[in-house]
Design brief:
Blueprint lengths: L1 E2 H6 L1 H14 L17 E5 L25 H13 L5 E4 L9 H11 L3 E5 L6 H9 L4 E5 L5 H8 L4 H14 L4 E7 L7 H10 L4 E6 L16 H17 L6 E5 L3 H9 L4 H14 L8 E4 L4 E3 L10 E2 L5 H7 L3 H7 L1 H4 L2 H5 L10 H8 L10 H12 L1
Helix pairs in contact: 3-4, 5-7, 9-10
Amino acid sequence: MIIFSKALADQATVWDTLRAAKESGQPMPDDMIRFSDQTKPVTMWNITRKCNLNCDHCYLDATTSTADELALEDGIKLIDELVDINIPILILTGGEPLLSRNFYAYAFHAKEVGLKTVVSTNGTLITPEVARLLKEAAIRYVGVSLDSCRPDVHDKFRGVKGAYKRALEGLKNARDAGLKTGLRVTLNKDNWHEIPGLLDLTLKNEIPRFCLYHLVPTGRGAGIADRDVTPEQRISVLKFLAEAAMELKDQEIEILSTDSPMDGAYLLEMLKNDPEKRERVWKLLQNAGGCSAGIKVANINHRGDVLPCHFMPDMKVGNIRENSFRDIWIENPSSELKALREIRSNLKGACAECEYLELCGGCRQKAKYFKGDVFEEDPTCVVKYLKKLDEVKQ
Protein backbone atom coordinates (compact mmCIF):
# COMPACT_ATOMS: atom_id res chain seq x y z
CA MET A 1 0.00 0.00 0.00
CA ILE A 2 1.41 3.38 -1.07
CA ILE A 3 -0.32 6.34 0.60
CA PHE A 4 0.30 9.12 -1.91
CA SER A 5 -1.23 11.78 0.35
CA LYS A 6 1.01 11.01 3.31
CA ALA A 7 4.15 10.45 1.26
CA LEU A 8 3.90 13.55 -0.93
CA ALA A 9 2.02 16.15 1.06
CA ASP A 10 2.45 15.40 4.74
CA GLN A 11 5.89 13.91 5.40
CA ALA A 12 6.72 15.88 8.53
CA THR A 13 3.41 15.01 10.18
CA VAL A 14 3.91 11.34 9.33
CA TRP A 15 7.33 11.23 10.96
CA ASP A 16 6.12 13.13 14.04
CA THR A 17 3.21 10.72 14.47
CA LEU A 18 5.36 7.63 13.97
CA ARG A 19 7.92 8.90 16.46
CA ALA A 20 5.32 9.87 19.06
CA ALA A 21 3.59 6.47 18.87
CA LYS A 22 6.89 4.63 19.17
CA GLU A 23 8.13 6.69 22.12
CA SER A 24 4.83 6.51 24.00
CA GLY A 25 4.17 2.84 23.32
CA GLN A 26 0.66 3.76 22.17
CA PRO A 27 -1.06 1.96 19.26
CA MET A 28 -0.16 3.27 15.82
CA PRO A 29 -2.90 5.33 14.12
CA ASP A 30 -4.61 3.27 11.43
CA ASP A 31 -3.47 5.48 8.56
CA MET A 32 0.17 5.39 9.72
CA ILE A 33 0.62 1.63 10.02
CA ARG A 34 1.78 1.25 6.43
CA PHE A 35 4.73 3.58 7.02
CA SER A 36 5.70 2.15 10.39
CA ASP A 37 8.33 -0.52 10.98
CA GLN A 38 5.92 -2.79 12.86
CA THR A 39 6.12 -6.45 11.84
CA LYS A 40 2.98 -7.91 13.41
CA PRO A 41 0.83 -8.54 10.34
CA VAL A 42 -2.27 -6.71 9.25
CA THR A 43 -4.45 -9.79 8.87
CA MET A 44 -7.04 -10.26 6.15
CA TRP A 45 -9.58 -12.95 6.94
CA ASN A 46 -11.93 -14.29 4.27
CA ILE A 47 -14.69 -15.27 6.64
CA THR A 48 -16.78 -16.65 3.76
CA ARG A 49 -16.42 -17.54 0.10
CA LYS A 50 -20.09 -16.80 -0.48
CA CYS A 51 -20.88 -13.75 -2.60
CA ASN A 52 -23.89 -12.13 -4.25
CA LEU A 53 -21.84 -10.81 -7.19
CA ASN A 54 -19.75 -12.55 -9.85
CA CYS A 55 -16.77 -10.24 -10.38
CA ASP A 56 -14.41 -10.78 -13.30
CA HIS A 57 -11.28 -10.31 -11.18
CA CYS A 58 -12.20 -12.14 -7.93
CA TYR A 59 -8.99 -13.52 -6.40
CA LEU A 60 -10.95 -15.98 -4.24
CA ASP A 61 -13.14 -17.20 -7.10
CA ALA A 62 -16.15 -16.59 -4.86
CA THR A 63 -19.27 -18.71 -5.13
CA THR A 64 -22.71 -19.12 -3.58
CA SER A 65 -21.51 -21.92 -1.31
CA THR A 66 -20.61 -21.76 2.37
CA ALA A 67 -18.86 -25.14 2.33
CA ASP A 68 -15.65 -25.59 4.37
CA GLU A 69 -16.06 -22.36 6.32
CA LEU A 70 -14.64 -22.23 9.83
CA ALA A 71 -17.06 -23.01 12.63
CA LEU A 72 -18.08 -20.08 14.83
CA GLU A 73 -16.07 -21.39 17.79
CA ASP A 74 -12.93 -21.66 15.61
CA GLY A 75 -13.43 -18.08 14.41
CA ILE A 76 -13.87 -16.74 17.95
CA LYS A 77 -10.76 -18.60 19.03
CA LEU A 78 -8.84 -17.08 16.12
CA ILE A 79 -9.90 -13.54 17.07
CA ASP A 80 -8.73 -14.11 20.64
CA GLU A 81 -5.39 -15.35 19.39
CA LEU A 82 -4.93 -12.38 17.05
CA VAL A 83 -5.54 -10.08 20.00
CA ASP A 84 -3.05 -12.04 22.08
CA ILE A 85 -0.26 -11.56 19.55
CA ASN A 86 -1.23 -7.91 19.12
CA ILE A 87 -1.93 -7.66 15.40
CA PRO A 88 -2.64 -4.04 14.39
CA ILE A 89 -5.78 -4.55 12.26
CA LEU A 90 -8.14 -7.37 11.27
CA ILE A 91 -9.78 -7.04 7.85
CA LEU A 92 -13.04 -8.98 7.51
CA THR A 93 -13.67 -9.84 3.89
CA GLY A 94 -14.99 -12.61 1.65
CA GLY A 95 -16.60 -13.35 -0.77
CA GLU A 96 -19.01 -10.83 0.64
CA PRO A 97 -18.45 -10.75 4.43
CA LEU A 98 -21.94 -9.45 5.17
CA LEU A 99 -23.34 -12.73 3.81
CA SER A 100 -21.58 -14.72 6.52
CA ARG A 101 -23.96 -15.97 9.19
CA ASN A 102 -21.16 -15.35 11.70
CA PHE A 103 -20.28 -11.81 10.62
CA TYR A 104 -21.86 -9.95 13.53
CA ALA A 105 -20.67 -12.53 16.04
CA TYR A 106 -17.12 -11.96 14.86
CA ALA A 107 -17.43 -8.18 14.59
CA PHE A 108 -18.91 -7.67 18.05
CA HIS A 109 -16.51 -10.14 19.66
CA ALA A 110 -13.60 -8.24 18.10
CA LYS A 111 -15.03 -5.06 19.59
CA GLU A 112 -15.33 -6.65 23.03
CA VAL A 113 -11.71 -7.83 23.06
CA GLY A 114 -10.34 -4.57 21.66
CA LEU A 115 -9.27 -5.68 18.18
CA LYS A 116 -9.33 -2.98 15.49
CA THR A 117 -11.51 -4.26 12.67
CA VAL A 118 -12.30 -3.03 9.18
CA VAL A 119 -14.60 -4.42 6.49
CA SER A 120 -13.89 -4.96 2.79
CA THR A 121 -17.19 -5.23 0.94
CA ASN A 122 -18.93 -4.77 -2.39
CA GLY A 123 -21.30 -2.41 -0.58
CA THR A 124 -24.52 -3.75 -2.04
CA LEU A 125 -25.87 -5.02 1.28
CA ILE A 126 -25.19 -1.93 3.40
CA THR A 127 -28.65 -0.62 4.17
CA PRO A 128 -29.03 2.19 6.74
CA GLU A 129 -29.82 -0.49 9.34
CA VAL A 130 -26.70 -2.49 8.48
CA ALA A 131 -24.60 0.67 8.58
CA ARG A 132 -25.83 1.43 12.09
CA LEU A 133 -24.89 -2.08 13.22
CA LEU A 134 -21.41 -1.67 11.72
CA LYS A 135 -21.04 1.56 13.64
CA GLU A 136 -22.24 -0.13 16.83
CA ALA A 137 -19.63 -2.86 16.26
CA ALA A 138 -16.93 -0.15 16.17
CA ILE A 139 -15.84 -1.01 12.63
CA ARG A 140 -12.94 1.36 11.93
CA TYR A 141 -13.31 1.56 8.17
CA VAL A 142 -15.60 0.32 5.40
CA GLY A 143 -14.05 -0.05 1.94
CA VAL A 144 -16.54 -0.29 -0.94
CA SER A 145 -15.65 -1.26 -4.50
CA LEU A 146 -16.77 0.91 -7.41
CA ASP A 147 -15.04 0.29 -10.73
CA SER A 148 -16.56 2.85 -13.05
CA CYS A 149 -18.51 6.10 -13.17
CA ARG A 150 -20.77 4.33 -15.66
CA PRO A 151 -23.28 2.00 -14.00
CA ASP A 152 -23.37 -0.40 -16.95
CA VAL A 153 -19.57 -0.81 -16.96
CA HIS A 154 -19.42 -1.45 -13.21
CA ASP A 155 -22.35 -3.87 -13.39
CA LYS A 156 -20.72 -5.82 -16.23
CA PHE A 157 -17.42 -6.08 -14.36
CA ARG A 158 -19.22 -7.17 -11.18
CA GLY A 159 -21.53 -9.58 -12.98
CA VAL A 160 -24.88 -8.32 -11.60
CA LYS A 161 -27.22 -5.66 -12.95
CA GLY A 162 -27.91 -2.92 -10.41
CA ALA A 163 -24.65 -3.49 -8.50
CA TYR A 164 -23.47 0.10 -9.13
CA LYS A 165 -26.58 1.72 -7.69
CA ARG A 166 -26.59 -0.50 -4.61
CA ALA A 167 -22.83 -0.09 -4.01
CA LEU A 168 -23.04 3.70 -4.14
CA GLU A 169 -26.05 3.67 -1.85
CA GLY A 170 -24.20 1.38 0.55
CA LEU A 171 -21.19 3.68 0.57
CA LYS A 172 -23.39 6.67 1.36
CA ASN A 173 -25.27 4.76 4.07
CA ALA A 174 -21.98 3.86 5.77
CA ARG A 175 -20.82 7.47 5.53
CA ASP A 176 -24.10 8.79 6.95
CA ALA A 177 -23.83 6.39 9.89
CA GLY A 178 -20.54 8.04 10.86
CA LEU A 179 -18.24 5.29 9.60
CA LYS A 180 -14.94 6.09 7.91
CA THR A 181 -15.42 5.04 4.31
CA GLY A 182 -13.37 4.56 1.17
CA LEU A 183 -14.03 4.09 -2.51
CA ARG A 184 -11.90 1.37 -4.13
CA VAL A 185 -11.35 0.79 -7.82
CA THR A 186 -9.54 -2.07 -9.58
CA LEU A 187 -7.54 -0.63 -12.46
CA ASN A 188 -7.99 -2.22 -15.90
CA LYS A 189 -8.15 -1.34 -19.59
CA ASP A 190 -11.86 -0.58 -19.39
CA ASN A 191 -11.68 2.03 -16.64
CA TRP A 192 -8.17 3.55 -16.40
CA HIS A 193 -9.36 6.77 -18.04
CA GLU A 194 -12.19 7.05 -15.49
CA ILE A 195 -9.92 7.47 -12.46
CA PRO A 196 -10.31 11.30 -12.45
CA GLY A 197 -14.08 10.92 -12.59
CA LEU A 198 -14.08 8.37 -9.76
CA LEU A 199 -11.93 10.67 -7.63
CA ASP A 200 -14.38 13.50 -8.32
CA LEU A 201 -17.22 11.18 -7.28
CA THR A 202 -15.33 10.44 -4.05
CA LEU A 203 -14.85 14.14 -3.31
CA LYS A 204 -18.43 15.04 -4.23
CA ASN A 205 -19.81 12.46 -1.81
CA GLU A 206 -17.38 13.44 0.97
CA ILE A 207 -15.76 10.01 1.10
CA PRO A 208 -12.41 10.45 2.91
CA ARG A 209 -10.38 7.76 1.11
CA PHE A 210 -9.73 6.86 -2.53
CA CYS A 211 -7.88 3.58 -3.08
CA LEU A 212 -6.56 2.31 -6.40
CA TYR A 213 -6.12 -1.46 -6.65
CA HIS A 214 -3.89 -2.86 -9.37
CA LEU A 215 -5.13 -5.99 -11.12
CA VAL A 216 -3.38 -9.11 -9.78
CA PRO A 217 -3.53 -12.32 -11.87
CA THR A 218 -4.87 -14.81 -9.38
CA GLY A 219 -8.23 -16.56 -9.03
CA ARG A 220 -10.58 -15.26 -11.72
CA GLY A 221 -8.18 -12.34 -12.11
CA ALA A 222 -5.79 -14.72 -13.90
CA GLY A 223 -8.42 -15.16 -16.59
CA ILE A 224 -8.40 -11.44 -17.40
CA ALA A 225 -4.66 -10.80 -17.15
CA ASP A 226 -4.80 -9.51 -20.74
CA ARG A 227 -7.10 -6.71 -19.55
CA ASP A 228 -4.43 -5.19 -17.35
CA VAL A 229 -3.36 -1.69 -18.33
CA THR A 230 -0.38 -0.87 -20.53
CA PRO A 231 2.69 0.78 -18.97
CA GLU A 232 1.68 4.10 -20.53
CA GLN A 233 -1.83 3.88 -19.06
CA ARG A 234 -0.49 2.92 -15.63
CA ILE A 235 1.97 5.82 -15.61
CA SER A 236 -0.78 8.24 -16.66
CA VAL A 237 -2.92 7.12 -13.71
CA LEU A 238 -0.07 7.24 -11.19
CA LYS A 239 0.96 10.71 -12.36
CA PHE A 240 -2.62 11.90 -11.97
CA LEU A 241 -2.94 10.48 -8.45
CA ALA A 242 0.39 11.95 -7.35
CA GLU A 243 -0.56 15.40 -8.63
CA ALA A 244 -4.02 15.13 -7.10
CA ALA A 245 -2.55 14.15 -3.71
CA MET A 246 -0.45 17.31 -3.68
CA GLU A 247 -3.21 19.59 -4.98
CA LEU A 248 -5.76 18.24 -2.48
CA LYS A 249 -3.44 18.21 0.54
CA ASP A 250 -5.69 20.61 2.47
CA GLN A 251 -8.86 18.63 1.83
CA GLU A 252 -10.22 15.67 3.77
CA ILE A 253 -9.15 13.04 1.26
CA GLU A 254 -6.54 10.30 1.46
CA ILE A 255 -5.29 8.93 -1.87
CA LEU A 256 -3.51 5.59 -1.97
CA SER A 257 -2.76 2.57 -4.12
CA THR A 258 -2.27 -1.08 -3.28
CA ASP A 259 -1.03 -4.34 -4.84
CA SER A 260 1.89 -2.51 -6.44
CA PRO A 261 4.92 -1.55 -4.31
CA MET A 262 6.46 -0.21 -7.53
CA ASP A 263 4.20 2.82 -7.18
CA GLY A 264 6.51 4.08 -4.44
CA ALA A 265 9.51 3.69 -6.72
CA TYR A 266 7.61 5.63 -9.38
CA LEU A 267 7.09 8.51 -6.94
CA LEU A 268 10.84 8.64 -6.37
CA GLU A 269 11.46 8.74 -10.11
CA MET A 270 8.97 11.58 -10.35
CA LEU A 271 10.78 13.51 -7.59
CA LYS A 272 14.29 13.36 -9.08
CA ASN A 273 14.28 17.13 -9.57
CA ASP A 274 13.27 17.73 -5.95
CA PRO A 275 16.06 16.03 -3.96
CA GLU A 276 14.89 17.25 -0.54
CA LYS A 277 11.35 15.89 -0.88
CA ARG A 278 12.69 12.79 -2.62
CA GLU A 279 14.91 11.97 0.34
CA ARG A 280 11.99 12.27 2.78
CA VAL A 281 9.76 10.08 0.64
CA TRP A 282 12.59 7.57 0.25
CA LYS A 283 12.94 7.25 4.03
CA LEU A 284 9.20 6.76 4.48
CA LEU A 285 9.06 4.05 1.83
CA GLN A 286 12.20 2.41 3.18
CA ASN A 287 10.60 2.31 6.62
CA ALA A 288 7.49 0.72 5.11
CA GLY A 289 9.62 -1.96 3.43
CA GLY A 290 7.90 -2.58 0.07
CA CYS A 291 6.15 -5.88 -0.63
CA SER A 292 4.84 -7.10 2.73
CA ALA A 293 3.70 -10.62 1.82
CA GLY A 294 4.54 -12.94 4.69
CA ILE A 295 5.93 -10.11 6.80
CA LYS A 296 3.50 -7.26 7.52
CA VAL A 297 0.57 -8.91 5.77
CA ALA A 298 -1.12 -12.26 6.46
CA ASN A 299 -4.19 -13.91 4.99
CA ILE A 300 -6.49 -16.55 6.45
CA ASN A 301 -9.02 -17.95 4.00
CA HIS A 302 -12.47 -19.38 4.67
CA ARG A 303 -11.02 -22.87 5.22
CA GLY A 304 -8.52 -21.65 7.79
CA ASP A 305 -5.53 -21.88 5.45
CA VAL A 306 -2.82 -19.35 6.31
CA LEU A 307 -1.28 -17.58 3.32
CA PRO A 308 1.44 -14.92 3.04
CA CYS A 309 -0.95 -12.73 1.03
CA HIS A 310 -4.51 -13.03 -0.21
CA PHE A 311 -3.18 -12.96 -3.77
CA MET A 312 -1.00 -16.05 -3.19
CA PRO A 313 -3.59 -18.83 -2.75
CA ASP A 314 -1.17 -21.59 -3.77
CA MET A 315 1.35 -20.85 -1.02
CA LYS A 316 -0.34 -22.43 1.97
CA VAL A 317 1.92 -22.20 5.03
CA GLY A 318 -0.43 -23.80 7.57
CA ASN A 319 -4.02 -24.18 8.73
CA ILE A 320 -5.46 -22.87 11.99
CA ARG A 321 -7.58 -26.01 12.40
CA GLU A 322 -4.34 -27.93 12.77
CA ASN A 323 -2.00 -25.42 14.43
CA SER A 324 -2.35 -22.06 16.10
CA PHE A 325 -1.76 -18.91 14.09
CA ARG A 326 1.02 -18.02 16.51
CA ASP A 327 2.74 -21.33 15.79
CA ILE A 328 2.33 -20.98 12.02
CA TRP A 329 3.34 -17.33 11.76
CA ILE A 330 5.77 -16.71 14.61
CA GLU A 331 7.10 -19.79 16.35
CA ASN A 332 7.50 -22.33 13.53
CA PRO A 333 7.27 -20.52 10.18
CA SER A 334 7.54 -22.66 7.06
CA SER A 335 10.47 -22.52 4.66
CA GLU A 336 8.27 -20.55 2.25
CA LEU A 337 7.57 -17.88 4.88
CA LYS A 338 11.24 -17.70 5.83
CA ALA A 339 12.19 -17.22 2.18
CA LEU A 340 9.70 -14.37 1.77
CA ARG A 341 11.04 -12.73 4.91
CA GLU A 342 14.49 -12.78 3.32
CA ILE A 343 13.03 -11.52 0.07
CA ARG A 344 15.76 -8.99 -0.72
CA SER A 345 18.43 -11.68 -0.84
CA ASN A 346 16.28 -14.10 -2.84
CA LEU A 347 15.10 -11.88 -5.69
CA LYS A 348 16.20 -12.42 -9.28
CA GLY A 349 16.37 -10.44 -12.51
CA ALA A 350 15.68 -6.72 -12.66
CA CYS A 351 14.19 -6.65 -9.15
CA ALA A 352 17.45 -7.98 -7.65
CA GLU A 353 19.47 -5.28 -9.41
CA CYS A 354 17.08 -2.35 -8.91
CA GLU A 355 18.17 0.76 -7.04
CA TYR A 356 14.82 0.67 -5.23
CA LEU A 357 15.25 -2.91 -4.00
CA GLU A 358 15.13 -2.04 -0.29
CA LEU A 359 11.83 -0.18 -0.55
CA CYS A 360 9.95 -2.10 -3.23
CA GLY A 361 10.64 -5.71 -4.19
CA GLY A 362 7.87 -5.89 -6.77
CA CYS A 363 4.67 -7.96 -6.49
CA ARG A 364 5.55 -11.59 -5.83
CA GLN A 365 2.30 -12.99 -7.23
CA LYS A 366 2.78 -11.16 -10.51
CA ALA A 367 6.31 -12.57 -10.71
CA LYS A 368 4.96 -16.07 -10.08
CA TYR A 369 2.19 -15.76 -12.65
CA PHE A 370 4.18 -14.19 -15.46
CA LYS A 371 7.62 -15.70 -14.78
CA GLY A 372 6.76 -18.97 -13.02
CA ASP A 373 8.89 -18.11 -9.98
CA VAL A 374 7.83 -16.12 -6.93
CA PHE A 375 11.35 -14.65 -6.67
CA GLU A 376 11.65 -13.55 -10.30
CA GLU A 377 11.34 -9.93 -11.45
CA ASP A 378 7.93 -8.30 -11.66
CA PRO A 379 7.33 -7.62 -15.36
CA THR A 380 4.65 -4.98 -14.70
CA CYS A 381 7.16 -2.55 -13.17
CA VAL A 382 6.76 0.94 -14.64
CA VAL A 383 10.16 2.07 -13.35
CA LYS A 384 11.90 -0.56 -15.49
CA TYR A 385 9.81 0.67 -18.42
CA LEU A 386 10.80 4.30 -17.79
CA LYS A 387 14.48 3.41 -17.61
CA LYS A 388 14.26 1.60 -20.94
CA LEU A 389 12.72 4.73 -22.47
CA ASP A 390 15.58 6.80 -21.12
CA GLU A 391 18.09 4.40 -22.67
CA VAL A 392 16.41 4.74 -26.05
CA LYS A 393 16.49 8.55 -25.82
CA GLN A 394 20.19 8.48 -25.02
